Each structure stands twice: as structure tokens, then as C-alpha cells.
Amino acid sequence: MFNKIDNIMTINVKSAFTSGLVAGIIIIIIGFGLVPILGTQMNEVLESRSLPPLSNGAMGFFAFVSMTFGISIILLYALIQSKFKSKLKAAVVSAIIFWFYAYFLPNAALVAYGFMPFSLSVIGTAWGIFELLTASIVASRLYKEAK
């Protein structure tokens, strides 16, 4: 009964935090690449809903969320990596799981509510999987297991 407790992996919290910050920075940098693709479409959607364009404060909040996502995805990676023979596969699986809950479902809900146009949500959701895969793969290489 207690044999399973011995098999629980210990997470190196310091390494997860630092490599997660790197993942967050990668998400932010890749996120900036979406701006020229969307152009003014996001501001047009906000204006059609009688909302102001994204402010510097909102952009700061999104940067904070991106850093939190980076740390979270590496914590998820640290939890599941022992289940996979390949660290790359563990990084990809953690990115896909995280993308589903953090990008796909919320964006699908925004479309279902009628708040976001389908095409804009598809672009953002697809961009999100690219962000998370890149961040997870790079930062997983930096993560060091607990000794």
C-alpha cells in the first residue's frame, strides 16, 4: 500500500521557478509576434463592444499571466516527466494539456458567448499552442530534477 509513496517524484521548486520564468519570457516574446498579424482587429472587436483598446495596464497584466503560465507549465512538466521515456515528449504533452485548459477552452467559451469572432479566436488559439510548445520545450531543457 505504501510502495506508491516511494515512487512519487520530488519537484525541484527552485529549478521549476527559474526555468518557468524563462518559459514565461518566451511566451511574452512570441506573443508580441501576434500583434502585427492581428493588426487592429482586436481593438475593432473591443470598440464594437463599447470597450476601450488594450491599455498599458492590460498589457502588464497579460505579461504577468504569461509568467504565471510559464511557471505553471514547467511545474506540470516536472510532475509528469517521470511517466515518459522522453523529456521532449513530456514537454510536448505538458504544453498540450496546459494549452487545452488555458487557451482552447477559454477561447471557445468567448466564441460561444459571442464575444469574440471565430476567426480571431482560431488565430489566437493556434498561436497559443505555438507559444506553449516553444516555451515548454526550451524551458524543460533548463529544468533540473531534484536530487
* Mean model confidence by pLDDT: 90
Structural class: mainly alpha
Taking the alpha carbons of the first and last residues, their distance comes to 25 Å
- Proportion in helices: over 70%
Q: How many domains would you count in the coordinates?
A: 1
Q: Secondary-structure map with pairings?
A:
Blueprint: H1 3-6, H2 13-32, H3 34-38, H4 41-48, H5 56-80, H6 87-112, H7 118-142
Describe this structure in words.
The two termini are 25 Å apart. With 147 residues, the chain is mostly helical. The longest helix is centred in the C-terminal third of the chain and has 26 residues. It has seven helices and no strands. The mean pLDDT is 90. Helix 2 runs antiparallel to helix 7 and helix 5 packs across helix 7. It has one domain.
List keywords for this structure.
mainly alpha, 0% strand, elongated, 147 residues
Quickly describe the structure:
The protein is 77% helix and 0% strand.
